[in-house]
Amino acid sequence: MEVCNCIEPQWPADELLMKYQYISDFFIAVAYFSIPLELIYFVKKSAVFPYRWVLVQFGAFIVLCGATHLINLWTFTTHSRTVALVMTTAKVLTAVVSCATALMLVHIIPDLLSVKTRELFLKNKAAELDREMGLIRTQEETGRHVRMLTHEIRSTLDRHTILKTTLVELGRTLALEECALWMPTRTGLELQLSYTLRQQHPVEYTVPIQLPVISQVFATSRAVKISPNSPVARLRPVSGKYMLGEVVAVRVPLLHLSNFQINDWPELSTKRYALMVLMLPSDSARQWHVHELELVEVVADQVAVALSHAAILEESMRARDLLMEQNVALDLARREAETAIRARNDFLAVMNHEMRTPMHAIIALSSLLQETELTPEQRLMVETILKSSNLLATLMNDVLDLSRLEDGSLQLDLGTFNLHTLFREVLNLIKPIAVVKKLPITLNLAPDLPEFVVGDEKRLMQIILNIVGNAVKFSKQGSISVTALVYKSDTRAPDFFVVPTGSHFYLRVKVKDLGAGINPQEIPKLFTKFAQTQSLATRSSGGSGLGLAISKRFVNLMEGNIWIESDGLGKGCTAIFDVKLGISNESSVPKAPASPRHANFDGLKVLVMDENGVSRMVTKGLLVHLGCEVTTASTSEECLRVVSHEHKVVFMDVCMPGVENYRIENYQIALRIHEKFTKQRHQRPLLVALTGNTDKSRKEKCMSFGLDGVLLKPVSLDNMRNVLSDLLEHRVLYEAM
């Protein structure tokens, strides 16, 4: 640097410029020297700054620049060579430090920029975190409100309370000016204003459901902002309002329309919605926030769920009430049915008793008359009377059996009997009628048919007798065949399947006649009570009465099946039935005791107790005809008074069905007779009950009171002879019912 020893100002302006430069250099020097002080203060206060040596270098550069400007102050006047040398040194050092600093900044600036970038990233992340925390706090607040609202909504299962509570809680939580619920009408074409927040009794007016604003809301599950002037939002007075608050609407699914039915509303299959409208306060700048809209949507769903629960409860309550009413009605019907059954049974039993008493007189007197000398014409009349009386007695038994079958009180009386003998007895009973009609009857028993079986002999005999009797009754010519065999499975009875075992088998009986036949369409009617088909009517034989109806029930009771086959009118018919019977060994069959039949019972003293004078007289007549010495009594007290060891048999009437406690003393008289002969038991007379009741329980009751047998009215002369023979021979009556 060339140094001038002197400067001579040439004009005043140059001197002025020099003064300005002098002053400027001074202030520049002061500024340069103040910057290092600030940097030193910054470095001292910043304990984490990673580039302290860079700051020291930068500070040295600034000091040198300041020193250069400061030294330059002495160059405006005459100065020495030393000043020039110092000035030159300062400028060289300043240049060196400036270059070094510039080179260093090339390496430092990228690092500083990356730090600045990270700082900006962290600031952005911090802002996002703040937003997320705010959202979380908002969601927590919304969740708290939802839980609170849900608790309030579900605290009851009454739909009106649910809807009213929803509006109140939403209005309080969201600070609403008004909140309303529009419900579909019964036609489904309109929405009706049903509930509001501010009005206790809202005016019930309707809006068409086809409005665009309603369709817009129903098309989405989200809350939708709607115009405050829409028909469904005009619920608050607008006078004095500068600006109406924002309005949102949301649909409320009606999961089942019966939730909202009134009386007889029809059930519609299309999905239905209610409309909830929420309004912010007017004259305020408040707007709907996202979390508030979410709260409204969640509450709408919760209301739908609560309403469905309420509907289930209402349906269950209605079902329970209906079930209770039905139970009451069923219980009343059951009691009425039981009363009717008891009345029917009592009526039948009374009628049975009242009918058997005159029947007893008719049959007994007819049998006595038959023992006298009669002309052939008179004997035919007496035999006709006896047969007609026996048929009438059979009809009475059928009526009682059918009654017990219908109420389920009839049970099978199982025992071992000879099956082959049973078939022969049936044919012996039917043959006299068949001979008169010139109808030959043949019996075919399969070789493998067991001889001794276990079953209800009397019921099986009644079934066979009914079917064979019908064949004889409805046939005018031809022949009748009865076939019995062990049943094997076939396809003619597709609804009936058998499972034979080693202890039982199924008996099949076929009764075939060559009579007038039956129209196949009329066959099902034959098993109904008192059936009268056209084909039967043409035979002038009457209907089938109760025979087939009772037979079908007996067959079902024996776990079997019965049906009739016919190819049509004039081609005859075949009656077939299967019943379940047990298998018995011949050695296990009890041998029936031999019962010698005495011609008379001369001198046998018998006591007859019967309150009915006619019945008492008839029974006495039978016994007197057999040679007995008969004493009669009309009351139980008289019977107890006159009975003695001389009497060998006491017949006592114990039956007055339909009255439970009637004549209980007639049962107790048997016990008192036992007590009277306690010390002389071998001299006690045999006690036989005379009854018109065919119920098995009646016989068991008689036997439980110490009676030795039960005799069913009506009684013929032969029956009385057999009864006395059994009593005197075995001192017990095996079977007389």
Description:
With 737 residues, the chain is an alpha/beta fold. Among the domains are: 156-235 and 243-257 and 270-318, GAF domain (Beta-Lactamase), CATH 3.30.450; 413-488 and 502-530 and 545-586, Histidine kinase-like ATPase, C-terminal domain (Heat Shock Protein 90, 2-Layer Sandwich), CATH 3.30.565; 605-736, Response regulator (Rossmann fold). Helices cover 50% and strands 15% of the residues. The protein is built from 16 helices and 18 strands. The protein has helices spanning 12-45, 52-71, 81-153, 159-174, 212-218, 290-370, 376-407, 419-436, 457-473, 534-537, 547-557, 613-625, 636-642, 664-676, 696-704, 717-730, and strands spanning 178-184, 190-196, 206-208, 224-226, 247-254, 272-279, 415-418, 441-445, 452-455, 480-486, 504-513, 561-566, 573-583, 605-609, 629-633, 649-653, 686-691, 709-712. The strands form three sheets. Strands 7, 8, 9, 10, 11, 12 and 13 form a seven-stranded mixed β-sheet that branches. It has a six-stranded antiparallel β-sheet with strand order 3-2-1-6-5-4, with helices on both faces. It has a five-stranded parallel β-sheet with strand order 15-14-16-17-18, with helices on both faces. α14 (664-676) links the parallel β16 and β17. α6 (290-370) runs antiparallel to α7 (376-407). The radius of gyration is 61 Å and the shape is rod-shaped. The protein starts with 11 loop residues before the first helix and ends in a 7-residue tail after the last helix.
